[in-house]
Write a structure and sequence with these properties.
two-stranded antiparallel sheet; alpha/beta; 5-stranded parallel β-sheet
Length: about 325
């Protein structure tokens, strides 16, 4: 019963914080913890004398390594696909690196067993604790990204803001076109309800680009039936944070506290929402469709960026967890 009470308390706290501001990353941590404690209670509350809980736990224990290996294989294959379709870059290597990283514990375990070098088992313990922590954070990020992305768009915004995503020459890429199509659909829905919001296209000119992203995005929207007078260009920014800062300044020239909906790719919604919250913007985020082969690497890239943004907290926790196995062995008198 204690597990259930803890789980319900965590879920209730998550719901309270969600109603206050759904753009908090920590909401995902409370949500996942609540689900874990509730799930543990469900496993523990099997009828006395039955083998169901033990069977379920044993099945999970047996399948977990296989599932990890399958996930590693999927990420490696996806990494190769990303490199073949998108070209070589650090970002496109993430899936491949993550897949290979999942195999490290198995390599360490096999080495420890074959060589009887038990210090490898200690290294495995440290690696496993750090990996478990990062795995928990990633699961909470993935879960809450899904929950946040399922929220319905609230109409009546002053502006619809589309974030840039790179160009191909002077043309928008398929990824950026998907964002623009989503924004155009939202704009048309607002017009049908008798409103006429601004449609802000945001993105500067890169060193390898012919025109600014904002110019190319504007041309795309006009070609697809959006009136030019409803499109505003923000053509200075080079990052998502700059997108938001410069757009805020443009809109506040006409409206003191503009309400806006930010349109980005579905894998980028949660991080964009946290940026909007940090700037104090009255803004929510909706996501456009992304090609399936692109999603794993993109989600890993988003998670890596979020982890780095909180590097001091995450680095400290990882160092403490990595130090625990060597400290336990030292306290027990060392490895014989």
């Amino acid at each position: 019963m204690i597990l259930l009470l803890i789980g319900l308390a965590l879920l209730g706290f998550c719901g309270y914080r969600f109603r206050q501001d759904r753009r908090r990353l920590s909401n995902g941590v409370y949500l996942l913890l609540g689900l874990i404690f509730t799930g543990l209670w469900m496993l523990q509350s099997g009828a006395p004398g039955t083998e169901v809980p033990s069977f379920v736990i044993a099945t999970i224990a047996l399948l977990s390594p296989l599932l990890v290996l399958l996930l590693a294989g999927f990420l490696i294959v996806n990494g190769v696909t990303m490199l073949r379709r998108e070209g070589f870059s650090v970002a496109n290597l993430l899936s491949l690196v993550a897949g290979l990283g999942l195999l490290v514990p198995y390599v360490l375990l096999a080495s420890a067993m074959l060589t009887q070098r038990y210090w490898l088992a200690v290294v495995l313990g440290s690696f496993s604790l750090v990996a478990s922590y990062l795995g928990f954070l990633f699961t909470s990020f993935l879960l809450y990204s899904y929950v946040y992305g399922r929220q319905k768009y609230q109409p009546g915004m002053d502006a619809i803001v589309v974030h840039g995503a790179g160009l191909s020459g002077a043309d928008v890429t398929p990824l950026l076109a998907s964002r623009l199509d989503k924004a155009a659909d939202v704009f048309r829905a607002e017009v049908r309800e008798g409103r006429s919001p601004l449609l802000v296209v945001s993105g500067g000119k890169g060193s390898d680009e012919i025109v600014s992203e904002a110019e190319a995005m504007c041309a795309y929207l006009v070609d697809h039936g959006i009136p030019r007078e409803n499109v505003m260009l923000e053509d200075r920014s080079t990052t998502t944070l700059e997108n938001l800062e410069y757009t805020r300044d443009l809109l506040r020239a006409d409206t003191t506290d503009p309400r806006m909906v930010l349109v980005t790719s579905n894998f980028h919604i949660l991080r964009t929402a946290t940026f909007a919250r940090s700037l104090g913007l009255d803004a929510e985020v909706i996501g456009s469709h992304t090609a399936r082969y692109y999603l794993p690497s993109a989600i890993l890239r988003e998670f890596a960026a979020v982890t780095v943004e909180h590097k001091w907290l995450n680095g400290t926790v990882c160092l403490i967890l990595a130090a625990l196995p060597p400290l336990v062995v030292w306290a027990a008198g060392g490895i014989s």
